[in-house]
Amino acid sequence: MIVVVLLLLALAAGTAVGYARRGRLRRLASPAPERNRLILTALGMYVVGVIGSWAWEPLLALLTAGCWLVLSFYAWLNRRRDGARLIAAGLAANALVILLNGAMPVDRSAQLRAGAEPAEHSATARTTEVDDDTLAPWLGKVVPVAFPLRPEAVSPGDVAVAAGAAAVVGTGMTRRRPGAERRGATPARRTRPRPAADENSGAADDETAGTHDTDGTHDTDETRDSTPAGEPSRRDTAPLDAGPESAADRATMTADAESERTSPRVTA
User: Could you give the CA distance from residue 77 to residue 80 in angstroms, rounded to a whole number?
Assistant: First the structure.
C-alpha cells in the first residue's frame, strides 16, 4: 500500500511541475506508447498468481516477479520518454530480489526508523524479513519513508519507479507534438550563386561563337586545347591556297606550261 501512496505522490509532483512549466496533460499521449497490451499481460499474471497461491503459496511471488519483469520490458520499449529507463531499472530490481529470495525482503530496522511497527512476515509469501541468508538485501525494503499517515520502508526499486514516473509526467506535459516545430519553422530560401552562373554563361557564349565558323579554317580555343600534345593543329596543317594539294602536281603543271611556250607552233 505504501508503494501506491509513494507512486501517487510522485505523479502529483510531476503534474504540478508540468503545469508550472505551462504544460498540458494531453501532450502525454503524443507520441503514443508502444505495446500497451503488455500492461494487460502483467495484470493477468498477477491475477493468476493470486488465485493460484491458494493451491501453491510460492506461485504468487513468482508471478509477481514475472509481472514486474513484463512491466520493466514495457518501460524499456518506451525508453525514448524521459524517466522510462529509470522505471524499467526499478521494476527489474524488484523482480530480481523477489526471484532470489522467493519474496520481498523487508528490513526491520528500516521500519523502526520510519516509525512503523514491524509486521510479522512468516504468515505471508509476499514479504520476508532480512537476515544473514538474504540474497541482495540492499535491493529489499531498506529505505525508510516517514509518511504522516502510514510510515513504511520501501525498496530502492520503488524509489526509482516513483522518480521515473514523476519525470515521465513532468517532461511529457511540456513535450511538443511531432511536427510542431516543422509547421512553425520558416523554410530556408534557396539562393543560386550568381558569380558562378555568369562564368558558366560566358564560357557557353565563347563555345557557341567558336562553332559558328563557316570556312572550317578557324580554330576555337576548345579545339586548340583538345589537340593532343605532339601533334600539329588544324591551323598548321591547313593549305594556304586552293591550288593543287601536293608539290608534285604543281611541278607537273609548271613543266607542261613551259613546254607549250617553247615548242614551235604549227601553222596551216
Answer: 8
